[in-house]
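Here is an idea for our session: we take a single protein and study its fold together. To get us started, please write out a protein record for me. Once you have written the record down, we can walk along the chain together.
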Amino acid sequence: MRPATPSRTVAINEVSGIIFSKVDILHGPTAFAHKTYATLAKLIQKDYINPPSGVPFDRSTLSKDEKGEANQAQIVDELLGGLRNGFFIESGAADGLYHSNTLFLETQRNWTGILIEPNPSQFQVLQKAKRNCHSLQGCLSVHNYAEEVTFLNAGHVGGIKGVNVPRSISQQRTWSNYRRISFESRVQCFPLYSILLALGNPRVDLLSLDVEGAELEILQTIPWDKVDIGVILVEVDPWSKHAIHNILALHGYVFIRSIRGQDRLFQKRRPGVSHQKLFTMFDEA
């Protein structure tokens, strides 16, 4: 696992020439007034992103095929016509195994990408799983700058303190159970765009966002004219779903379908693709 504590070595911003410490760049908006995305990307690449395992995933560790909690991976696979060698970003990756939205794509379609998970215990399991993709212990920032936040380590319903809101009675019960023990930790967050730059800004065939309440804020940080994201799978709340639909429609995405009520699937408009057919490809879930 990469070290989580940055040194105080100074970094010179390529655009302004102003000198900032790494702590400045990682912990607040000051440096980002001077457009330090490129500098931050270099720090992420050097100190935070873990490389792929380099070996095929050992499927014998699974008790069954994993296609997502509600077959999300299979639905994406059908939408993309069995696309091979794709690239994913899965934020809220948990342990990388249970209910993974990308494991099927990696093992059956030879995809790679990056798994992002802030929960320390979940990330340890993810690392031991030896997925053949990059990984990062941290979270996506709800601002367009890097910051350190308090994270609520409430199992699969954990999230950023002050942003995370339980979505159901069962989640409230889970939170109540975790509150009986110490479950808060400080976690480093990065803007999605800075992580993409650290990876060389590849085309992203699938962006999966399951971050327990921060989805809208994360989408609002994306400079859409500088990225290429084909399909977005995002979990929504009753109070955020209309805003999420609006922001994605504004940036050229077509709503494909709902999955189990909370997840929404969108696809970028492409020349020559009949998106009207995509609306009727699946039954509403």
Remarks:
- Residues 10-279 form a domain with the Rossmann fold fold (CATH 3.40.50.150).
